[in-house]
Amino acid sequence: MHATLPLLQMTEFPPLRRRRLETLQVNLGYYCNQSCVHCHVNAGPTRKEMMDEETLSLIPTVLAARKIGRLDLTGGAPELHMGFRRLVQETTALGVQVIDRCNLTVLFEPGQEDLAEFLARQRVEIVASLPCYQADNVDKQRGQGVFEKSIAALQRLNALGYGQAGCGLVLNLVYNPQGPSLPPEQGGLEKDYKRELFDHFGIEFNQLYALANMPIKRFGSTLISKGQFNGYMRLLKDSFSTANLEGVMCRSLVSVDWQGKLYDCDFNQQLGLPLPGKGRLHLRDLLEEDVEGRPIAVADHCYGCTAGQGSSCGGALKSA
């Protein structure tokens, strides 16, 4: 795999500083039942890295100590971590909102037959990957048969109340472009998704998040192999919008890797860019240390969050 960090470090991206910490985003490990082309984590069925019990047990303690209102769980497939359900139960008992970044097909993995019901009981917000509403495009990006399983999973979640008006069970979908292009305008694309998924499959959901692909890890390496990396970076830089700097996720979020190390965002985590400052901060350090006001580590991949309508964990930052 081609290394992308050397191509991103010489940057003119504007300096940023942190605000109050509102979200703890935790990567429980890189093991996943899928291997998606656009995956910036390079997750897959052969990955072995998973968070240990000691680090996992720190998460609720840190959430309570720092009065953090949101826990955002990622992977890999976070649900495949042995401690996932206990962590969710302990966190929701604190009154913290839990977000599960779900690939949908995990609902059909052995041992996960009651996963959807568990998530509903705990009132976990689901952010589900569905890069298109057409089977060919999804299977091309995520693997043969993934679209069919994803539709079945969404229908099952709908039957439990997810995405249904008045139920309070939030189901948001995620769109990623197929290649080196920016996402279309999020509002219009959401209308297309809602129409197509309801008309053909009876599926309902709350919001669509349109995310730009990051030129790192598996996707970045693919761009280099195809001779498209420099062109994609030009596109991101030429589409830079200063207005998006205010809403980027790294201002109010800390990313935690499977070893407990802290980063400004999930993308910096994958590039190995730690929080700036003295020493390498660990999750346990948040019990004593406040990160508000700290500078944020930036590089050229940050243009991916600020190009066009912007792109963050919660989708577009503004209307295009």
What is the CATH architecture assignment? Alpha-Beta Barrel
Percent strand: 5-15%
Rg result: 19 Å
- CATH homologous superfamily annotation: Aldolase class I
Our measurement of the CA-to-CA distance between the termini, rounded to an integer number of angstroms, reads 34 Å
Q: Which strand order do you get reading across the main beta sheet? A: 6-5-4-3-2-1-7-8
Shape: globular
CATH class: Alpha Beta
The major β-sheet equals: 8 strands, mixed
- Number of distinct beta strands: 8
The chain-level structural class is: alpha/beta
Return the domain count.
1
What is the average of the pLDDT values? 91
Helical amount: 25-40%
Order of helices and strands: HEHEHEHEHHEHEHHEEHH
Q: Which spans of ≥5 residues are poorly predicted at pLDDT below 50?
A: none
In brief:
This protein has 320 residues and is an alpha/beta fold. It is built from eleven helices and eight strands.
Distinctive features:
320 residues, alpha/beta, TIM Barrel, 32% helix, globular
Describe it.
By secondary structure, the protein is of the alpha/beta class. It has one domain: TIM Barrel (Alpha-Beta Barrel), CATH 3.20.20. The chain has eleven helices and eight strands. Strands 6-5-4-3-2-1-7-8 form an eight-stranded mixed sheet. β3 (97-102), α4 and β4 form a beta-alpha-beta unit. The chain starts with a helix and ends in a 14-residue tail after the last helix.
